[in-house]
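User: Hi! Is it possible to get a structure for several chains at once, not just one? Here's what I have:
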Amino acid sequence: MTVLLRPARRADLARIVALIADDEISAARTGTFDDAHLAGFDAIEADPNNELVVAERDGEVVGTMQLTFVPGISRYGATRLLVEAVRVDSRLRGQGIGRQMMLWAHERGRARGCVLAQLTSDKRRPDAHRFYRSLGYAQSHEGFKLPL
Amino acid sequence: MTVLLRPARRADLARIVALIADDEISAARTGTFDDAHLAGFDAIEADPNNELVVAERDGEVVGTMQLTFVPGISRYGATRLLVEAVRVDSRLRGQGIGRQMMLWAHERGRARGCVLAQLTSDKRRPDAHRFYRSLGYAQSHEGFKLPL
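Assistant: Yes, the chains can be modeled jointly so their relative placement is included. Here is the combined structure:
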């Protein structure tokens, strides 16, 4: 199943929030679409190093992810591609949509000069870990989070 | 031992690169100071959502870290504080410098509206993992990397 990848529009946001919230782990911490999500969208739009992307099929948004291009000093001044909030419609999983999205993200990262992609995935998502390993990712790091 | 935290200057960069390279895991992938690191520094300087920070004691740089403020949709449109490339002079570890740096980073993140801090640490660094847990971080995620 082939999807079209494109920048998210403001009109996509309610659907994006629903996709992000559509699992047990994320539901409680995402909530239903409101002004806070709109403010987040506007902040992404205002930052040239951030891109919110959707996967579309037959005019419907079926996936989403956020890309951040992070300049740095390590690894010979490498720019990194950070991938966050990757989601595919739960009714359409296992059909290669996530793979198309990630390959597109890597291409976009290379176009922006990134030499490394990185992401974290909740330890409770073993299927996602298998998916990222299948794309060639090394599961080399521990991921830490702290509410501020 | 109290340190002063301040934005990095271009003149600090050779020292920062040496700090980042000063361990077995990072040495090979950081290299010695050259134009590539300067380009990385300039890219950080040009991005209002990135800050390279140093810890200074008696006029000497003894630690470094990079902060990235990442807008987002998840967690009610939360902005995240991403902390990368945290290093303390290997001769001065265990004296609370890293803790001062991280607490400063969290304060800076809050001032920038961040509600969550996140970082990854190589699985070969168990001492670092213990340190982050001692700061209250949840070791909740797997971290993945892919060369592009």
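DSSP finds six helices and six strands in chain A. Strands of chain A lie at 4-7, 50-57, 60-70, 79-88, 114-122, 138-147.

User: Great, thank you!
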